[in-house]
Amino acid sequence: MATTRAQAPAAAPRRWAALFFIALAQLMIVLDATVVNIALPSLQRDLGISDGDRQWIITAYTLAFGSLLLGGRIADRAGRRRTFLVGALGFAGASALGGAATGFELLLVARALQGAFAALLGPSALSLLTVTFTRAEDRAKAFGVWGAISAAGGAVGLLAGGALTDYLDWRWCLYVNIPLALVAAVGATALVAESHRTGKARLDLPGVLLVTTGLVAVVYGTSRAESDGWDSPRTIGLLAAGAVLLAVFALVERRTAGPLLPPHVVADRTRGGAYLTVGIAVIGMFGAFLFMTYYLQAVKGYSPIRTGVAFLPMVTTVLVSAAGLTTRLLPRVPPRALIVPGMLIVACGMLWMLTLEPGTPYARGVLIAGLLLGFGSGLIMPTALNYATHDIDPNAAGVASACVNTAQQIGGSIGTALLNTIATTATADYLASHGATPAIARQAAVEGFGTASAWAAGIIVVGALIVAVLMNTSRPDIRPAAEEAADPETLVAH
């Protein structure tokens, strides 16, 4: 075993090759957030799953994902590459199990295992990116790729899910993860140096228990809100319990010698603003995917594959915005100079949904909304993900990365449940006052999507104002973690 410095110039070609395999794992995780959604009707019929149990196919994954902070700390302690490999291979195995499932129970177990291994894979992948790309210019390019994948991966998942379901079988929406995970694991083994914390500090078991149960309560509570209502005793009890557990977790972390989540990780205004940005931005993105998918299929009559193709312009715009513009500006301007305009543009995209009618042509409706959402997301995600590990001690890179995934997961869960409740309530109110013919039902659905989109836009605008005040970094300063990561006490290459 020999030590090596992280930023040796000769390693540059290997770093960029490593980016491909690390980013492939992120693509797999983001794809899985939407690719299974498209397959839900088919797998429900095939396995005889009731409407009441259907939501658990999604909820099992998000509940298991609630252990994200523990996954980040494991990566910091046990080795980020090692954790990455365990996460990737475990995710492949869980996907194979789900694809071969012959009943609801086995599929449920497989989805929970996918979430658990994703909780290891996501933070370890982002922390590897953090300690691998250390110069400002390199980080801007690498996080531009990462942010584009995070912003566009959900739409790509809709396209992939539609194609796989239409032309093959719903099971391939799970099987597709196997080759992706294996390629990522092989590439990481060959190109990524191991990095981990050399200390053997005691694991913060009380913190693990509190944060895991707290996050699970919040995620489960929001998932129940869609079926039980936000004012139901079960929903209120779960959300209240989650809030109390997370508050106790925050108090415990301030007093323990070796905290699972060191308070300084989230107390920093720039990093805290980045986590807030990610959490709020996914409300817009998840809401857009949800409402556009329903609008195109239920109102316009598009097939799953045609729906996926309809999202391609948005995906292209994300790539152009993230890779063509954000990567150039990221090393030169303060983060809020990119994030705040991006959030306002995304809000405009959500507001454009108010113009949709059942007969609105694609080019005047979904296309414009998608272009606005794509361009704004391309400004937001690379910047927020870059600064989420801003000025962080390399020993805490894993847990800082886990905070990003936690913000994304909680934001997506709460946003989807809240917006779906708003949409269904508005739709029911419209039907109650206008009747229930097929034409009115389509118009009612559109009214519901528009109302929820307006709420999403309002949330994003408020978030933009908060970020404008909170993220007070005056100039890019994304070097620190890098040079500390180059310390031979921090990186161990095998």
Automatic annotation (TrEMBL):
<keyword id="KW-0813">Transport</keyword>
<feature type="transmembrane region" description="Helical">
    <location>
        <begin position="112"/>
        <end position="131"/>
    </location>
</feature>
<feature type="transmembrane region" description="Helical">
    <location>
        <begin position="84"/>
        <end position="106"/>
    </location>
</feature>
<dbReference type="InterPro" id="IPR004638">
    <property type="entry name" value="EmrB-like"/>
</dbReference>
<feature type="transmembrane region" description="Helical">
    <location>
        <begin position="308"/>
        <end position="330"/>
    </location>
</feature>
<dbReference type="InterPro" id="IPR011701">
    <property type="entry name" value="MFS"/>
</dbReference>
<dbReference type="InterPro" id="IPR005829">
    <property type="entry name" value="Sugar_transporter_CS"/>
</dbReference>
<feature type="transmembrane region" description="Helical">
    <location>
        <begin position="337"/>
        <end position="356"/>
    </location>
</feature>
<feature type="transmembrane region" description="Helical">
    <location>
        <begin position="452"/>
        <end position="471"/>
    </location>
</feature>
<protein>
    <submittedName>
        <fullName>MFS transporter</fullName>
    </submittedName>
</protein>
<feature type="transmembrane region" description="Helical">
    <location>
        <begin position="143"/>
        <end position="162"/>
    </location>
</feature>
<keyword id="KW-0812">Transmembrane</keyword>
<keyword id="KW-1133">Transmembrane helix</keyword>
<feature type="transmembrane region" description="Helical">
    <location>
        <begin position="16"/>
        <end position="40"/>
    </location>
</feature>
<feature type="transmembrane region" description="Helical">
    <location>
        <begin position="362"/>
        <end position="381"/>
    </location>
</feature>
<keyword id="KW-0472">Membrane</keyword>
<feature type="transmembrane region" description="Helical">
    <location>
        <begin position="174"/>
        <end position="193"/>
    </location>
</feature>
<feature type="transmembrane region" description="Helical">
    <location>
        <begin position="205"/>
        <end position="223"/>
    </location>
</feature>
<feature type="transmembrane region" description="Helical">
    <location>
        <begin position="235"/>
        <end position="252"/>
    </location>
</feature>
<keyword id="KW-1003">Cell membrane</keyword>
<dbReference type="InterPro" id="IPR036259">
    <property type="entry name" value="MFS_trans_sf"/>
</dbReference>
<feature type="transmembrane region" description="Helical">
    <location>
        <begin position="55"/>
        <end position="72"/>
    </location>
</feature>
<dbReference type="Pfam" id="PF07690">
    <property type="entry name" value="MFS_1"/>
</dbReference>
<feature type="domain" description="Major facilitator superfamily (MFS) profile">
    <location>
        <begin position="18"/>
        <end position="475"/>
    </location>
</feature>
<feature type="transmembrane region" description="Helical">
    <location>
        <begin position="273"/>
        <end position="296"/>
    </location>
</feature>
<dbReference type="InterPro" id="IPR020846">
    <property type="entry name" value="MFS_dom"/>
</dbReference>
